[in-house]
UniProtKB/TrEMBL annotation:
Coiled coil: none annotated. Belongs to the RmuC family. This is DNA recombination protein RmuC. Pfam families: RmuC. InterPro entries: DNA_recombination_RmuC (IPR003798). PANTHER family: DNA RECOMBINATION PROTEIN RMUC (PTHR30563). Residues 120-139 are annotated as: Disordered. Keywords: Coiled coil, DNA recombination. Involved in DNA recombination. It comes from the Bacteria. It comes from Candidatus Muproteobacteria bacterium RBG_19FT_COMBO_61_10. GO terms for biological process: DNA recombination.
Amino acid sequence: MVLFIPGDQFLSAALDLDRELLEDALKQKVILATPTSFVALLRAVAYGWRQEALAANADLIREVGEDLYQRLAVFTEHLARLGGSLEGSVSAFNKAVGSFDSKVLPGARKFVEMGVSPKKALEPPTPLEITPRGIPPQK
């Protein structure tokens, strides 16, 4: 609680009569404020509120950062699994191309040798040489 005294001279006169007035007031959780000290008190309170708001923002930023980091960790796991699946898909595709080239095309060419006139030529698919980029390990 703040007790506003409208002039410095009034507080000075009261302190001349009772030297323990300030201490007694503080024990009762009362701040004696004059026009001179009241402005400083208001500035100190405003500063305290700003510091409290900054601390609250810092806590919120830390919480959001922790949450984002956890989400990134999960996302990284998903990417690693997806990369493994892509690698497996490319490998399976290349095996199918190899099988087509070594097992299917020779049989199809025999039809042409036997006089079948295809409307389209069979072109063997090209194996993929694409490797998914890996995710570097965390340090």
